[in-house]
Structure formats: C-alpha cells, structure tokens
C-alpha cells in the first residue's frame, strides 16, 4: 500500500539577478555623477532610464493581481522612506528659520507641505539656508530635495501603469513610442502647458515614459516577438539620432543629457532597448559576479534609501574634507588628495552606508518585513544551499 502522494508544488519565479546587477550599477553611477558632474557618465550608462525600465518590468509582473491592490502596495513601499526623510529634513529646515514666504499666503505654504506626504508634485524646501559649520554645507535643503523628482515621477508611473498596460496590450508600439512623440511635441512647442507643477510631471513622463513602458513590454513578451536581428540593428541608429540631437543642442559646450530632455529620452530609450534585448535572465550569478553577491544584494535591498540620502551624503563628505584644508600639512603636501573626487566618493559611500543602518529599516517596515540593519543576504541562505554553492564554485 503506497503512502499519500505529496501535493504538487509550483516553483515561484526567483529574482532576476541581471536586473539586480543593472540596478546596482545604476545606483553607483548616479552617486558618481552627482559627485563629479561628468557629462559623459549618462552616455555610458543612462541610469534613470534603466531604473525606470526595471521598475516598469516589476510593476507589470505584479499587475497579474488586482490593480488597486498592486498600486496600493507599491505606494506603501515607496512612501515611508520619503516620510522619514521629510520628517528629518523639514524639521531641520524649520529649525533653521524656514517659514511661510513673504507673499502673505501661509495657507498655501502649509498646503504645499502635503507633497512631502504624497509627492504628486515637487515638495517645497527652503532655499539659501546656512549649513551646519564644519559638518554640512550651505543650501543643504536643495541637495536634500534634489532627488525627489524621481519619487514623484515613479509615483505617477505607478498610478498610470494599469492604464498603460491596457494600452500596451492593444497597441503595443504606439504606446511605447507615445512618450517620445510627446517629448518632441513639447520640445518644439507644439504643446504648451500652463503653470509650473503640471509641466514638470509631463516633461518627466515624456523623457522616461518610453523606458518604463519598455520594461512593461519586456515582461509582456512584446520584445520577444521581434526578429532577433531587429533590436541590434535599429537601437544603435536610434542612439546615434539622440547623440546627434544632443550635439546639435550644445552638448559639447558643457551641457549634459539632463539639460536636453529629448536627447535624454532618445538615448535612454535606445540603451534600454539593447539591455532588455540582451537580458540573460540570471537565476544565479555568473562566476565573475559571484563575489559581488552581498554588495549587489545590499544595494537592491536599500535602493530607495540610497537614492533619497545620497545627495546629502555627498554634500556632507565634501564639507568634512574641506575642513582638512585648515591643516598646513594637508594643503602643503596632500592637496592632490583633497582635490581628488575619489576621496570624497569613498567618504560619501561611507556616509551612505551609515544612512543604510540608520534609516534603511523604513524600507523593511514599508514592505512588511522584519527590520534589518545590513540586508546583504548573508544570513538568508540555508547552510545546505550555501555548501552546495561552495562546491559548485570549486568545480568551476
């Protein structure tokens, strides 16, 4: 007499380590770019378009469940880290004398603070604040609020994703290319928008919307239906078009892609198209990346915290290192080190690491996970699996 048959189990899809790798590189590039301002970095790796594409892919994967539930869940995971940043930042601004402006509309001032809670538009911040001597430089509030455009744009993409997915399934390439057409229409003045808050949201959608929708299209299998030669043949031509437009608009004279939205949109679209076409879908790390597993896991686990706090960490690092110029031995013999961006980069990442420890728990609470100080995955794998991976590593 045979025993009871074990119930069939379906294997849940694991993390796509290729996407984790892209997100980690994108975060590092964002920090390096905001520290150095090197205009060639967005050309080598257009981080924002890539991050939006990855988010669009994950959002579409989640939309297999009821849309309202998914949107609410994404908002829940996004907003608490922002609230923690706002609680600390706005308190600091108020402590340094930030108050309703002199226009006599304190009611509107207080109302606009709501955008720190639900960032449907850019939240207000204090301009021209004095820094904290020796610790953080002037205008720190502007650096604190600088990355928040990404949170605003991300929130709008999340809210629009159910509609975008329906449009993508009906008219895939019309939906994918629509943001690029919108960007061109805005650039050449065919569409004019009133006010300040609406245009900023529409411009962001037109610049990176095609990347978000490309991520959705990848999840839906739209790109797989193309002939294998199509993307490698077309994407470089699209990228060259974006580069030509950037050069025509003065890219060589000190501007970067962020200053030329249409060029940014075209270049990011072409790069994302190529990266998604390659998309090896790693369920485990290739050998050359295995040693970076814990670091990449940490960066992905704390992506929102890193993005929100990195600007203020860069400012604090630069301010702290600037104090060293007051020591004669430093400016006489080590000025080359103080002028190097690499020392600032190392200190900035050290401060970012401290922010992960101090503030990263907000991401865990938002995701309804047990809070962790340093979620690099080192303690999450069962011993048997770790031993098996070790043996596999030796065989390779």
Main beta-sheet strand count, sense and barrel state: none
Structural class given helices, strands, pairing? mainly alpha
Please state roughly what percent of the residues sit in beta strands, choosing from under 5%, 5-15%, 15-25%, 25-35%, 35-45% or over 45%. under 5%
Number of helices: 18
What is the helix content?
55-70%
Textual characterization of the structure:
The radius of gyration is 23 Å and the shape is globular. Helix 7 (148-170) packs across helix 8. It contains 18 helices and no strands. Mean pLDDT is 89; it is low at 1-12 and 382-396. The chain has helices at residues 17-36, 41-44, 47-62, 67-95, 106-112, 140-145, 148-170, 172-187, 197-220, 230-248, 261-278, 293-301, 303-322, 328-333, 335-339, 341-359, 361-366, 383-395. It has 396 residues and is mainly alpha-helical.
């Amino acid at each position: 007499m045979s025993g009871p048959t074990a119930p069939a189990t379906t294997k849940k899809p694991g993390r796509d380590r290729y996407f984790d790798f892209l997100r980690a590189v994108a975060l590092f590039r964002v920090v390096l770019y905001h520290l150095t301002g090197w205009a060639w970095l967005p050309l080598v790796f257009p981080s924002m378009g890539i991050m939006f594409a990855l988010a669009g892919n994950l959002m579409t994967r989640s939309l297999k469940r009821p849309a309202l539930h998914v949107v609410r869940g994404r908002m829940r995971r996004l907003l608490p880290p922002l609230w923690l940043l706002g609680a600390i930042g706005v308190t600091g601004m108020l402590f340094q004398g930030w108050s309703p402006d002199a226009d006599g509309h304190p009611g509107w001032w207080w109302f606009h603070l709501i955008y720190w809670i639900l960032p449907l538009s850019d939240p207000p911040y204090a301009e021209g604040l004095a820094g904290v001597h020796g610790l953080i430089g002037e205008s720190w509030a502007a650096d604190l609020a600088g990355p928040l455009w990404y949170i605003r744009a991300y929130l709008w993409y999340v809210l629009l994703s159910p509609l975008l997915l329906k449009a993508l399934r009906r008219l895939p390439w019309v939906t994918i290319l629509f943001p690029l057409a919108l960007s061109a229409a805005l650039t050449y003045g065919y569409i004019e928008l009133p006010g300040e808050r609406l245009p900023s949201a529409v411009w962001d959608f037109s610049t990176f919307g095609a990347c978000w929708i490309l991520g959705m299209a990848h999840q839906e299998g739209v790109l797989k239906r193309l002939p294998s030669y199509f993307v490698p043949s077309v994407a470089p031509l699209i990228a060259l078009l974006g580069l030509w437009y950037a050069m025509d608009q003065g890219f060589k004279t000190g501007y970067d892609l962020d200053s030329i939205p249409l060029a940014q949109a075209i270049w990011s679209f072409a790069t994302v198209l190529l990266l998604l076409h390659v998309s090896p879908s790693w369920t485990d790390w290739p050998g050359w990346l295995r040693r970076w597993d814990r670091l990449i896991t940490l960066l992905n686990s704390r992506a929102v915290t890193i993005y929100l706090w990195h600007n203020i960490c860069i400012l604090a690092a630069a301010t702290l290192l600037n104090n060293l110029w007051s020591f004669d031995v430093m400016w006489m013999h080590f000025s080359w080190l103080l002028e190097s961006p690499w020392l600032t980069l190392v200190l900035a990442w050290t401060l970012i690491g401290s922010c992960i420890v101090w503030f990263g728990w907000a991401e865990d609470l938002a995701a309804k996970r047990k809070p962790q100080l340093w979620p690099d995955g080192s303690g999450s794998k069962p011993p048997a699996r770790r031993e098996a991976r070790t043996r596999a590593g030796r065989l390779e």
